[in-house]
Amino acid sequence: MELALSWNIALKMLAGLVVLLVYIYLSGKGALAPISALDQVGNIVLGAIIGGPIYNPDVSVVMLLGVAGMWAAMLLGVRYLSFKRWSIKNVVDGKSIMLMQDGKVLDRNFSMARISVRDFIMLLHQRGHPNLDELRNVWFEYNGQMTVVTKGDEAMAIVVIENGQIDYDNLAVIKQDENWLREEIERQGFTLEKIFIAEWHDNGLWIYPYMQQTS
């Protein structure tokens, strides 16, 4: 009886290890260093799905493989869609929210970021910024961290195209519209569909096309 139970546990541990190895291989290093809330929670749930049934004799190896494989497949599917469509990534992970721009506090954005003034000041102090007067731009990132640019720093680039898709919110940040962007793209000899990344920096649009056209 004990020998059979030991074999059952060993087989389920092996099955769980196989699922984890396949998931890490297919998802890349993002599985080992998650940067979004969904990645972190997804990994925790996957670990619970694999770890919980190992010592439960009522859960078979096939059931463990099926449930863990299904959850891993759903995580991979969401990750793939988020990579292909930034609009989906915005829904899944959220967006970076600007809390300060050109030295001005954007008070309306604090409710969007769900961060209080007290927490905002605490995070700034933890990063070594004693007051707001020295800051130029501050973003609250979707992973809960803050990106800070002081008045003495070089301005950060703003991504306006990602995977051939226009980021209209970032266009508004640089005070431009889609017509301007398309004219600038055409002037540089590109089409929107062939652009992997385009960013606004140093009063110019810097375009990085796909090395090869994707389907």
Strand arrangement, largest sheet? 2-1-3-4
What does the overall shape look like?
flat
Query: Count of DSSP helices?
Result: 8
| The number of domains | 3
Can you tell me the residue ranges where pLDDT is under 50 for at least 5 consecutive residues? none
How big is the Rg? 23 Å
Instruction: Assign a percent range to the helix content.
Output: 40-55%
Mean pLDDT over the residues: 85
Question: Termini, distance in Å?
Answer: 55 Å
Per-chain topology:
Elements: H1 2-27, H2 37-51, H3 61-84, H4 86-93, E1 97-101, E2 104-105, H5 108-113, H6 117-126, E3 135-140, E4 146-150, E5 158-162, E6 165-166, H7 168-173, H8 178-187, E7 195-201, E8 204-209
Antiparallel strand pairs: 1-2, 1-3, 3-4, 5-6, 5-7, 7-8
Helix pairs in contact: 1-3, 2-3, 3-4
InterPro entries: DUF421, UPF0702_alpha/beta_dom_sf, YetF_N
Organism: Oxalobacter vibrioformis
Family: Belongs to the UPF0702 family.
Description:
Helix 2 (37-51) runs antiparallel to helix 3 (61-84) and helix 3 packs across helix 4. The protein is α+β, with helices and mostly antiparallel strands and 215 residues long. A hairpin with a 2-residue loop joins strand 5 and strand 6 (165-166). The chain folds into 3 domains: 2-91; 95-150, CRO Repressor; 158-209, bsu07140 like domains (CRO Repressor). The mean pLDDT is 85. 49% of the residues lie in helices and 18% in strands. The protein is built from 8 helices and 8 strands, in the order H-H-H-H-E-E-H-H-E-E-E-E-H-H-E-E. The longest helix is centred in the N-terminal third of the chain and has 26 residues, at 2-27. The strands form 2 sheets. The protein has a 4-stranded antiparallel beta sheet with strand order 2-1-3-4. Strands 6-5-7-8 form a 4-stranded antiparallel beta sheet.
